[in-house]
Amino acid sequence: MEGLVAGITVFVLAIFVGFEVIQKVPPTLHTPLTSGSNAISGITMVGAIMSAGADDRMMTILGFVALVFATTNVVGGFLVTNRMLQMFKRKG
Amino acid sequence: MVALTNLAYLLSAVLFIFAFKGLAHPRTAVRGNQMGALGMLIAVVTTLFDKHILSFETIIGGVIVGGALGAILAIRVEMTAMPQLVALLNGFGGGASVFVAGAALLEAGVLSDAPPLQLAVATVLSGLIGSVTFWGSAVAFAKLQGIRWVTDLRFGGQHLINGLLLTAAIACAVPVIMDPTNVLFYWAVVAIAAVLGLLVVIPIGGADMPVVICLLNSYSGLAASMTGFALGNNGLIISGSLVGASGLILTKTMCKAMNRSMTNVLFGVMAGGVAADEDSVYAGKVKSTSPEEVAMLLDDVRRVVIVPGYGLAVSQAQHIVRDLTNLLEARGVVVEFGIHPVAGRMPGHMNVLLAEADIPYEKMIEMDAINPTMVETDVVIVIGANDVVNPSARTDPNSPIAGMPVIDVDKARTVIVVKRSLSPGFAGIPNPLFAAPNTLMLFGDGKKAMMDLVAAIKEG
Lengths: 92, 460
What we know:
The structure holds two protein chains of two kinds.
Chain A: H1 2-22, H2 30-41, H3 45-52, H4 57-90
Helix pairs in contact in A: 2-4, 3-4
Chain B: H1 2-22, H2 26-48, H3 57-76, H4 82-106, H5 116-145, H6 158-178, H7 183-201, H8 209-231, H9 234-257, H10 262-266, H11 278-282, H12 291-297, E1 303-308, H13 310-314, H14 318-330, E2 334-339, H15 349-356, E3 364-366, H16 367-370, E4 379-383, H17 392-395, E5 414-419, E6 439-443, H18 446-459
Parallel strand pairs in B: 1-2, 1-4, 2-3, 4-5, 5-6
Helix pairs in contact in B: 1-2, 1-9, 4-5, 4-7, 4-8, 5-6, 5-7, 5-8, 6-7, 8-9, 12-18, 14-18
């Protein structure tokens, strides 16, 4: 029970932090914000790695699929965000 | 060891927050993104040391396949296709959550230290949200990509069916929550949520895509957060909720810019109201112009504002618009870009296209900042935008778009509208701007018209 309450506490506080920080992002950067936050939601990679490395055949299969999805999300997200942000940086 | 692992995840989460902070300015944004990537690297490397991991073959395989796929997508995508890519990646995030949560159910204690009830509830939520995200994103991708058989399908009783599906999903969730070994019921929830995701996005039209993309972005974060609860991992909970918050803020911003509520967009209904009749708005009042005439007009101006819309992306006109800008600036003309928050198919879509064409971000001005300058603007050039410059939002209280904030281009001395025809925009209503005394219509494809204009200016 304590674990759950601690989890919910973290969840709620993080949402507030998110609101505070993200409100300062200017509209010009809203597309990189979307793709960058997308990459961060690929944090499920952590769970996917644990599952893919497990000793159970079914878990390994599920973990592999999840890992492909999550890694695509992470690598694609950060790279494409970087590509866009470099364009904004070029001039100005 | 467990404490050390958790501290490493905390470090990752802090780096993610710095990543978002960096995005507050184009100068610090690249660094911010790098910090985010570093945070992810730390989280991944930490996980590799987990004592439950027994073999690395599958992990290496998955990372290679996913990494290659992600890199190819990111490097090859055209800037105009950014909305599709983001939709696709959103979906992948949701899909990953579905499978991780499904794996966590298989053997309690390996993936998850969470108590059984928390594990079950969070897993079901993760599967539900993740599956809706995956299939909803798939539809959004198909629509943005212009795949023909995916149309804006509307039929009677759609909301009733969605309601029934949600009820069925909850009913299937109960056995899982009672006893987490009922794994098959989990996959039933996922399957029902898949249909729900398809049906929710199918009726939503192209111009509402910015809202859909933001919302799906938010869902992919929430799904990750729920997976965090299922695994009892604070790192996932924090990262997921940051993304959830980000998507939610953008969703709200987009809805405000369209003067519509979120339910209104999600249920695919336009506001009521009666649009003026097309014939009475346009009859005999629309003036057509030529690139040569516009070139002459631009001979003697001090301030020009360019207002881009989705048509700019479709015709890939951003580079030739940059040439026009350079040409005018070389003559001492001040050129700025007025950008409506929902111009394009995702938030900030226009800014990315203009940045790709080397237009500095200082010239991209938000709607609220550009509007007061309209009265002192000599010429406004509208390229491929329609509803976001429709003055009836301001002047006609009966209009379906009444009250929607628009860019007041009609207040400039002269307005040039580059457009293929007089066909209505997404709102399906005529635009009195096209018939205004100070408006000239330059009919044609955006890129072609701009090329002709640039040629005419160079000759003149």
